[in-house]
């Protein structure tokens, strides 16, 4: 059976519930270091899936492979029905326009205002838009992330939480189908973390996006994900809802929970 038909066969031959991200047996090593050791994952339309794990567990490598920034050693990685590592450059570039990547450090251009940061991807990728249409798109996403008043500010004038929001806005301006969040609450204070978690859920509902959220923040995982996958030394130990994953006697999962987070009952 062709790899392109694997998930169709799993769903009884119907594409009705076809995953937007489909991963089977994914392996990746760097020299003698095994980073991903045969993982399976599916993300369906409109679903947020959180990948939890310690630093160095392979989380960031996973989303870089999904985005086509790294090649897998073996396994199947399909995004929107296309096997990523088999795509030619132009096909991969077209696919990446459907994938939003929210970087941990926001990745704003310091020498550009907020308006210019948001306009840059439109000018580069949506050349048919008029200036009026670009301005409307910029104003719309800024309004959605609650930062309309920052439109003429420079990144140096923004707080860490504001930079995160503007980074999300710049990603949303191309209306991606899939979003890959890399540590969206990293380095933020607890109140701002709650605001970013709420924004991630609002983005999911408004834009009907499908997302993978890479984090070691259990508050973020519980707030944003319908499903959680616990990654440990390159393998998934358990997948399910937040409560299902942490309802376990596995000392590795319990240790991660106890070290990171105490739930407020």
């Amino acid at each position: 059976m062709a790899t392109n038909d694997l998930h169709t066969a799993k769903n009884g031959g119907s594409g009705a519930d076809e995953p937007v991200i489909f991963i089977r047996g994914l392996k990746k090593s760097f020299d003698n270091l095994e980073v991903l050791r045969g993982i399976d994952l599916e993300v369906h339309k409109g679903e947020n899936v959180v990948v939890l794990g310690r630093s160095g567990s392979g989380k960031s490598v996973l989303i870089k492979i999904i985005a086509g920034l790294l090649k897998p050693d073996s396994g199947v990685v399909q995004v929107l029905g296309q096997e990523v590592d088999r795509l030619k450059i132009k096909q991969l570039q077209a696919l990446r326009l459907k994938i939003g990547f929210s970087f941990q450090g926001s990745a704003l251009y310091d020498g550009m205002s907020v308006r210019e940061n948001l306009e840059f991807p439109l000018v580069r990728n949506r050349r048919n838009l008029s200036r009026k249409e670009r301005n409307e798109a910029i104003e719309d996403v800024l309004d959605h992330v609650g930062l309309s008043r920052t439109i003429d500010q420079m990144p140096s004038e923004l707080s860490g939480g504001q930079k995160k929001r503007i980074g999300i806005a710049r990603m949303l301006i191309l209306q991606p189908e899939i979003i890959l969040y890399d540590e969206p609450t990293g380095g933020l204070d607890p109140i701002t973390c709650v605001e970013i978690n709420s924004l991630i859920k609002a983005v999911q509902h408004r834009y009907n996006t499908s997302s993978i959220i890479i984090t070691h923040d259990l508050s973020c995982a519980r707030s944003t994900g319908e499903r959680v996958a616990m990654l440990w030394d390159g393998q998934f130990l358990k997948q399910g809802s937040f409560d299902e994953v942490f309802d376990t006697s596995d000392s590795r999962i319990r240790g991660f929970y106890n070290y990171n987070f105490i739930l407020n009952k």
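The radius of gyration is 19 Å. The chain has ten helices and ten strands.
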